[in-house]
Amino acid sequence: MPAFPVILYPDPRLKMACESVGVVDDAVRQLIQDLLDTMDAGPPRTVGIAAPQIGAMTRVAIVDIGRNPKHEGLGHGYLALVNPTIVAHTGEQIGREGCLSLPDYTANIRRWERITVEALDPNGAPVRIESEGFEAVVLQHEIDHLDGILFLDRVANVKTDLFQRRKK
Amino acid sequence: MNSVVVITAVGQDRPGIVAALAKAMFDLGGNLDDATMTRLHSAFATMVSASLPSDVSVDDCRAALTPVAREMGLTVTVQEVSGEGGEETPPDHLLTVYGADKAGIVYEVTARLAQRGVNITDMDTRLTGAPGSPIYVMVLEVACGDADLAAEIESLRKNLGVDITVQSLDAEAL
């Protein structure tokens, strides 16, 4: 399957909460495959994508921090999550984040250091994931997308940056 | 009596500007405190506060920076500031304002804050987004005190069509 175009802010769908998945069926598995294809076609080191970013207003996201060589072998590898929810968290961390839907822009974002996520896997089986550090950040970033929250809504301090400044 | 000065220096960007300014201040016995330095378009803009030793006047400081300004092609100002104040209203909120770029975002947002007596302590704005669909992002650190901004924020959201997030700045040790 070809990759889907990633929708960009200010598309209003990025600020909307998504619907929960009732039954994990073939359509949901196809959506997961679409997300994977889109991530494969995206910029190198793309480590997560959420369904609303390709215009599917459904609580589905995928995460794979191993796609960035810096984080290879850490975390859980490839995760496809349906209806993911953060059920517990401890600590705080601040790190630089960017987003496919807001290209060329990064900011310092405050996140939980360690989280417990409950979700359904692509077969509809419940999973419980304990995650920390960078993977926990990516999970929080993607779950935020499902609630219509962008990383800009969690900026930790004034200093933001651009990979490349654009001229008006 | 030690003077505190704020020095601004702006000029075409090139390597060595900060080093040249820092050397002049070091030779003068001045102590650099807070600094904000950034590239804006093709210019480099620096703002730095410095404490001068008791035997160095503000005019001495200007004189010491004149050759640096000439050599580096900078416009330099040196302004004495009162060592008092500035700390009375510590920042208590962080505002993020972002949306499709249009004229007047900065003016509308800051005018509303000013009307409410809200003090901006730090601000960073960026123009980003895909070509043909520019996004304007403002991040403001503000001291609201008792001002209730909820109604203002809601009306800015509606009138400007921007997204605004307000976060409380809790002083947490991380």
UniProtKB/TrEMBL annotation, chain A:
Its cofactor is Fe(2+). The keyword Iron applies. The active site is at 142. Its EC number is 3.5.1.88. Fe cation binds at residues 99, 141, 145. It holds the Pfam family Pep_deformylase. InterPro entries: Peptide_deformylase, Peptide_deformylase_sf. The keyword NAD does not apply. It catalyses: N-terminal N-formyl-L-methionyl-[peptide] + H2O = N-terminal L-methionyl-[peptide] + formate. Keywords: Hydrolase, Iron, Metal-binding, Protein biosynthesis. It is an enzyme of class 3 (hydrolase). CDD domains: Pep_deformylase (cd00487). GO terms for biological process: translation. One of its GO terms (molecular function) is peptide deformylase activity. Binds 1 Fe(2+) ion. HAMAP family: Pep_deformylase. Belongs to the polypeptide deformylase family. Removes the formyl group from the N-terminal Met of newly synthesized proteins. Requires at least a dipeptide for an efficient rate of reaction. N-terminal L-methionine is a prerequisite for activity but the enzyme has broad specificity at other positions. PANTHER family: PEPTIDE DEFORMYLASE. This is Peptide deformylase.
From TrEMBL, chain B:
Coiled coil: none annotated. It comes from Capsulimonas corticalis. This is Amino acid-binding protein. It comes from the Bacteria.
